[in-house]
Amino acid sequence: MNVCFNCGEYRADKIIDPSGPYAICPVCEYKHPFLQLPLLVVGGASGTGKSMVCHALLGRMNGVVLLEGDLLWQPEFNKPEDKYIEFFETWLRICKSISQSGRPVVIFNAGMGVPENVEGCVERRYFSDVHYLALICDDEVLAERLRSRPVWQKSSGPANVEEQVGFNRWFREQGAQTETVIELIDTTGVSVEETAEQVALWVCRKIGGTRSGDASA
What we know:
217 residues; three-stranded antiparallel beta sheet; 6 helices
């Protein structure tokens, strides 16, 4: 979609006309119709249950595409100096393309759960809305979950545990106060199945569709 069908220029910064909606090439002004669907982001610190909930919902919800955000992570994206912008832009570009099939994307990723990381991206303009949900839990519960992980995941060390506990606390204390509100689901003492059902209900409230537990077409 970033390549103009008329002049062939690559421009991610197309002008969006919501009346179509149309993506207008800034070079030749060609108007390209497209589907401007919402994007749903399930964030939260590592260990709050994002990946397990995503896995639990696979094949059980109609009308959306569920994606695990870590699938794309590569060392070349690890650039804290520019706030990992290429990682977020790449995911938004992929979600935009997938949504042209008529199904909104629900992406599970820690960093994308922070509105500041998404709302300023060039590719953000192609979505009608971005809805944010964060999974949270008690600090001690999160720390124990991380410490019990296999060594190969490199997430059980004291430094990472402290960082993720702080990130979890940020969602819990600041999420509802950000300019773009982040809704919260507490996974403390709650099974994966119960949490997955709550996430599915949240998705349905935002875009409609079939609840979890119903895999009919």
